[in-house]
Amino acid sequence: MSRPPASVRRERAVLSGYFLGLGVVMAVWGARMPAVQHAAQLSTARLSLVLLAAALGMVAGLTSGGRYVRPERLPALMVGGGAGLAGCLAVLGQCTTLASLLLAAMVFGSTHGILDVALNTAAVRCQDAYRRPIMASLHAAYSGGALGGAALAAATARTPHSTLFLVTGLALGATALVTASRTRALSGTGRPSASFPHGGGQERSALSVARLWLLGALAAAILLGEGAAADWAAVHLHSLHATTAVSATAFALYSAAMMAGRLTGDKLTAAVGAPTVVRAGAMFSAAGLATGASADSVPFALAGWAVFGLGLSTTIPALITAAGTGGPKAVATVSVTGYLGLLAGPALIGALASTTSLPTALLLPALLAAAVAALAHRALENTAP
Fold it and tell me: Whole-model pTM above 0.85?
């Protein structure tokens, strides 16, 4: 296999840096949420409004990003979005009222959405140039950043969140600006691709409407599971009488397994194809979570969450790759639909748990993973880079 040109390898390094930074920002923001709530003296209901504002902002950002992203605009959107998101984090740390948090969270979410579309569109184009899968490793950089951000938040637990947000935001924002010349030099901005066959602003979708919505539905199913892992893994372990420290380990194991899977996912995809990798991984994750949720055992539960993360690790990168053949609007559509699953997942699991039990409710993401396995070939056929 021929070695990609140096310019394309530099592009991959730049994109990895952006994905890593995005993971850091989101982990720091999420991990110190209790401090944000305490500083502004918010009730749980009012904190939910702040999170809703961020979610609505992200949906708006994803939608507008899909409409306005073009190859020639990618560098500016990446630099502006990266620096803007970091700046929003710094501002959020200084907000001490509900009104200021709502406004800052809305802008934070919108900037996140625009940056997400720009990064994934650039990633699809970079993968086109590589002529082999690299999307999973780029998303692994996000997972690594999230783990690093969570570790940073834990290590600075005694530091005021306002200081952590300010320092992290300024550092990442300055990095985006200092490296702007490298970002502006991305070779992909003028390169023809499947999404932009003429290298200009005209898109030619290679996706049918039915297939696009199938990709979106699968993304929603997978991200519902990710939301369940983020919000319910620790609760699940606690319900099995695990200590607080062991309960917190559940999501860490899930995240670490997902990152490990993404680091190896590109080689597997190149060897056997995305449909086979996603189908096998989704079946593996469904079996793992179903076993872990059904067993009245802490070790089995921990193993179940780890297997769940490992099995799902390559799914979202594969879905984004498939959507990329339809251009930024298709990437945005799949992202918005998937994000709705991420938002709805924790609440839906909670509602099911209140009427049945938490182990029973956790069978839902396992069943959805099995459905993804069944539909993977139809959604992902003929999507090799």
Answer: no
